[in-house]
Each structure stands twice: as structure tokens, then as C-alpha cells.
Write a structure and sequence with these properties.
The chain is of the alpha/beta class. The protein contains eleven helices and eleven strands. The strands form two sheets. The protein has an eight-stranded parallel barrel, surrounded by six helices. A two-stranded antiparallel ribbon has the order 7-8. Strand 10, helix 10 and strand 11 form a beta-alpha-beta unit. Helix 6 runs parallel beside helix 7.
């Protein structure tokens, strides 16, 4: 009896983590916590990822920059002024210098004293069966340290996909980590006079195919519809979108057939679209 109960609970948890919102006829959607559960905890901190895992989110996303002493540390910005209240340039600062800063108080007094974690620290927290999207904010110079960290921690390759707006970074990451999925990030812009989007959907698909990437991670406000997703998948590519925080936008992306939705509060949003 105990075995049956444990098995049922295990299957139920797996369903909660990976099943699409709504009924079984809908496609599977992977919900991704943007910079961790950043609506409620300070972005890119251990608290944000702890909260995401506790809430059962299937995946989380983080941003990394390279420090002066060659380590990958979590931060979206190239300097610390926005989250720490004082400005240190990340590439010109050591880990020791950066970790003296408080990057939690700006969000809430209860997060006072929160430090900037290293990539290695967060990768170690990934629960079995879940993923951590690693956004590399800089060029290919970050890839050797990325490889070192992932090899050292030893998570399964499918648990640590890499994303970047930097084409050279994506190319280098795919070459150095062939078993790790690499997604090219892009934000498409619409020309007000011609109405055309740049880069176009066709250009993005061709680019991803040319370099052997596993998919595209796109701003949801671009020209993303069922036809585009169908074309991308026919080319063997996954389609991910960011950063969706409103139920209506999430439903539109689900109807288009995307594979994953990144949100600042994914646990909440996934419940709104059931």
C-alpha cells in the first residue's frame, strides 16, 4: 500500500512539473522562472531559485557575466548599480569584491544581505528532472569557464541549456558542449513604415539551422504564431518565448504551440491559464 501511495505521489509531482496547463489535449508547456521567481524574490539570487524549485516550476533562467578573476557570477547588468545601490563593473571586479555587496535589500528588507552567487552555486541546486537555462550575457570568452563549471558539477546535459543573444557565444557553446541544448535569443523589431519584422522568422530559422542550434528563444511580442512555430518545428527547432507575465499573452503563446514560456512569476501564471 505504501509503495502504491509513493508511486502515485511521484507520478502526480511529475505531472505537476511538466504537464501543460488545462486539459490533456493541450501541448506540453515548460514554465521557466525568469531570473528565478523574480516577482517575489530578488533576481539572480539563491533565494529566487530556492523559491522557484519550492513552487514546483519546471525550469529557471539566470544571467551570468565573467568577473575580473575569471569566474561566472549571476547578474543581468554589466554593473551592480541597479541591484546593489553602488556601482562596480563586473568584468573589472573580483568575486570577493562583488560578494561584499547586498543585492537583496532593494527588493525587500527580508532579503537584506543577499549575495551574488556564482554559476556553480546555482547549478548545484537543480532538482532531478528540472532545467536551468544559463543566459551568457557576454561573448565567447565566457565559454571555457562555462564548460569548467558544468563538467565540475556534473548535472545531466539536458538540465543546463545555454541561451544567448551573442551569436559567437552560441556557436562556441554548441561546439564545446555538443550534448547541451543551445538556443539563440532574439528580439524582433517591426519597421513602422514597411510593417516588416527584423530579423524575419525565416532568417531566424535559417540562422539556427546553419549553426546547429537546438531552437530559438524569442520575445513574445514578435510575429509568433502557429504557422511560424510549425515551420520552426519542421526544421527541428524548439520555440521558447520571453518574458510573459499576463494570462492573455500566455494563452496566445500556448495556442501558437510554443514549447516553453519564461515568466517573472511562472508558478502563478501557469495556474491562471488552466
Amino acid at each position: 500500500m505504501k509503495v502504491a501511495i509513493i508511486l502515485f505521489v511521484g507520478l502526480s509531482l511529475a505531472s505537476a512539473l511538466f504537464a501543460a496547463p488545462g486539459n490533456g489535449s493541450k501541448p506540453m508547456i515548460e514554465w521557466v522562472a525568469h531570473r528565478g521567481e523574480s516577482a517575489d524574490a530578488p533576481e539572480n539570487t539563491m533565494s529566487a531559485y530556492k523559491l522557484a524549485w519550492e513552487r514546483g516550476v519546471a525550469a529557471a533562467e539566470l544571467d551570468v557575466h565573467l568577473t575580473k578573476d575569471g569566474q561566472l557570477i549571476l547578474t543581468h547588468d554589466a554593473d551592480t548599480s541597479r541591484t546593489a545601490g553602488q556601482k562596480l563593473i563586473v568584468k573589472d571586479s573580483t568575486v570577493e569584491e562583488l560578494q561584499k555587496l547586498d543585492v537583496g535589500s532593494w527588493k525587500s528588507p527580508k532579503y537584506a544581505g543577499e549575495k551574488m552567487p556564482l554559476l556553480e552555486d546555482v547549478v548545484r541546486t537543480i532538482p532531478d528532472g528540472r532545467r536551468l537555462f544559463i543566459e551568457v550575457k557576454i561573448g565567447a570568452e565566457a565559454v571555457p569557464e562555462l564548460v569548467r563549471v558544468l563538467n565540475k558539477v556534473g548535472k545531466k546535459p539536458e538540465q543546463t541549456p545555454v541561451i544567448s543573444f551573442k551569436l559567437d557565444t552560441c556557436i562556441a557553446a554548441k561546439k564545446a558542449l555538443p550534448k547541451v541544448k543551445v538556443y539563440y535569443l532574439a528580439a524582433q523589431k517591426k519597421d513602422k513604415q514597411t510593417g516588416k519584422w527584423s530579423p524575419s522568422n525565416e532568417e531566424l530559422i535559417a540562422l539556427a539551422k546553419q549553426h546547429g542550434f537546438d531552437g530559438l528563444d524569442l520575445a513574445y511580442k514578435g510575429p509568433i504564431d502557429a504557422d511560424f512555430v510549425k515551420s520552426a518545428k519542421a526544421a527541428g527547432l524548439d520555440v521558447l518565448v520571453w518574458t510573459v507575465d499576463e494570462p492573455a499573452d500566455a494563452r496566445r503563446m500556448i495556442e501558437a504551440g510554443v514549447d516553453a514560456i519564461t515568466s517573472n512569476h511562472p508558478a502563478w501564471l501557469s495556474q491562471q491559464v488552466k
